[in-house]
Design goal:
Elements: E1 14-20, H1 31-48, E2 52-57, E3 61-66, H2 74-87, E4 100-104, H3 107-123, H4 138-143, H5 154-159
Antiparallel strand pairs: 1-3, 1-4, 2-3
Helix pairs in contact: 1-2
């Protein structure tokens, strides 16, 4: 086990999560593999009742910006996600054992992480503009496009019939949590401005 790695769960924070394919092999290097990951992410999002605010699937790693599940630890939901992809793939082992988890505090850090996620394919030279990479949440933030994974945003809140979402980084802080205008299942989900 890696020494010094500390994870803070059940804090109500958003989590910037990164995990990689085994030995950074490009096991997600094909459209079919990336589509498989997106389907698994959406399945686990529904099963474990957490929200996804941003993501990108790269050829050898994944970045997620997610909320915490209601009834299990985030680590359990991530383990299920990784297992779901691995059992549907030929490569063995598929994933590195560990993952990086950073608790996101404050809107400034949230925007920084979301931009990092969406610009990753451009930085790597896979595309010239973020909207050209199909396997990310960028187009949702940019034009409200619905993709394979439901993204928690003001676009989504409006589709549900809500007026938007009141935002607080720590939605479990019940003393200060504002009311949301979306369904009960999304209470505490953050709201964001359009991608900048």
């Amino acid at each position: 086990m890696t020494s010094g790695l500390v994870r803070y769960h059940q804090t109500g924070d958003l989590h910037f999560v990164t995990f990689s394919c085994y030995r950074r092999q490009p096991y997600l290097g094909t459209p079919v593999a990336r589509d498989l990951f997106e389907r698994s992410l959406e399945t686990m999002r529904c099963r474990y009742d957490f929200f996804v605010t941003a993501y990108v699937v790269m050829p050898e790693h994944v970045h997620l910006l997610v909320g915490e599940p209601k009834c299990v630890l985030l680590a359990t939901a991530l383990q299920a996600l990784k297992l779901s992809v691995a059992v549907q793939s030929r490569e063995r082992p598929f994933w590195q054992r560990r993952y990086y988890d950073f608790n996101v505090h404050g809107e400034r850090k949230l925007i920084e992480k979301r931009r990092y996620i969406h610009r990753n394919p451009v930085t790597r030279g896979l595309v010239a503009q973020p909207d050209e990479w199909k396997w990310s949440s960028f187009r949702h933030w940019w034009i409200g496009e619905e993709g394979a994974v439901e993204i928690e945003s003001n676009w989504t809140a409006r589709r549900r019939g809500g007026l938007g979402i009141s935002y607080e980084i720590n939605p479990l802080n019940l003393a200060g949590t504002p009311q949301t205008h979306v369904s009960e299942s999304r209470r505490g989900a953050p709201a964001f401005s359009k991608e900048q």
